[in-house]
C-alpha cells in the first residue's frame, strides 16, 4: 500500500499526479514519527534535553500538518500549501541542527530524517504553482 496509490485514485487527480508532492507528504509523515520518537527518547536521557524535546515536538506537529495538506486534492489552496512546505523546510532544518548537536544515535537518526524531509519539501515546492 502507498500514499501514491491513494492519491492517484482521487477523482480530481487524473493525469495531474504530482510525484514530488506525494513523496514529500510521505516523508513528512515519517519525519513526524521520527521526531516524536526522538523527543520521547530524549525524555529518558539523564542530561537536560528540554530544547531538543521542544524542537522535535514542534517539528513533528509541523511535519504532520504538512503531510495532511499535501495529500488533499479537492479544490486548491496553493498559497497555503506553499507556505506550509516552506514552514516544514524551516522546522526540519532547525530540528536537524538541534539534533545534530547531540551524540545520541536517536538524535543523529532524527537529524538525518529531518534533512531528507526538508530536501523532499524543497523539491515539491518547485512543483506547486
Task: Describe this structure as you would to a colleague.
The longest helix is centred in the N-terminal third of the chain and has 26 residues. With 129 residues, this protein is mainly α. The relative contact order is 0.19. The protein has a single domain, classed as Up-down Bundle (Substrate Binding Domain Of Dnak, Chain:A, Domain 2).
What labels would you give this structure?
Substrate Binding Domain Of Dnak, Chain:A, Domain 2, YHJQ-like, 75% helix, mainly alpha, Four-helix bundle copper-binding protein, 5 helices, 129 residues
Number of separate helices = 5
Output the helix-strand order: HHHHH
Question: How much is the radius of gyration in Å?
Answer: 15 Å
Gross geometry? elongated
Q: Distance N terminus to C terminus?
A: 28 Å
Q: What is the helical fraction, as a range of percent?
A: over 70%
Beta-strand level of the residues, as a percent range? under 5%
- How many extended strands? 0
CATH names the topology as Substrate Binding Domain Of Dnak, Chain:A, Domain 2
Mean pLDDT: 94
What class do helices, strands and sheet pairing give? mainly alpha
Q: Give the oligomeric state of the chains in this entry, treating copies of one chain as homo and distinct chains as hetero.
A: single chain
Q: Please identify, by name, the CATH architecture.
A: Up-down Bundle
- Summarize the main sheet: none
Overall structural domain count: 1
pLDDT < 50 stretches: none
Pfam families: Csp
InterPro entries: Csp_YhjQ (IPR005560), YHJQ-like (IPR044543)
Protein name: Four-helix bundle copper-binding protein
Amino acid at each position: 500500500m502507498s500514499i501514491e496509490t491513494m492519491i492517484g485514485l482521487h477523482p480530481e487527480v487524473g493525469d495531474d499526479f504530482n510525484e514530488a508532492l506525494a513523496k514529500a507528504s510521505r516523508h513528512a509523515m515519517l519525519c513526524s514519527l521520527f521526531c516524536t520518537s526522538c523527543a520521547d527518547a530524549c525524555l529518558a536521557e539523564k542530561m537536560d534535553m528540554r530544547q531538543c524535546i521542544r524542537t522535535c515536538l514542534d517539528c513533528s506537529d509541523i511535519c504532520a500538518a504538512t503531510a495532511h495538506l499535501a495529500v488533499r486534492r479537492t479544490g486548491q489552496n496553493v498559497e497555503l500549501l506553499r507556505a506550509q512546505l516552506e514552514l516544514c523546510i524551516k522546522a526540519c532544518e532547525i530540528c536537524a541542527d538541534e539534533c545534530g548537536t547531540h551524540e545520541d544515535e536517536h538524535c543523529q537518526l532524527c537529524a538525518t530524517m529531518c534533512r531528507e524531509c526538508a530536501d523532499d519539501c524543497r523539491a515539491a515546492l518547485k512543483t506547486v504553482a
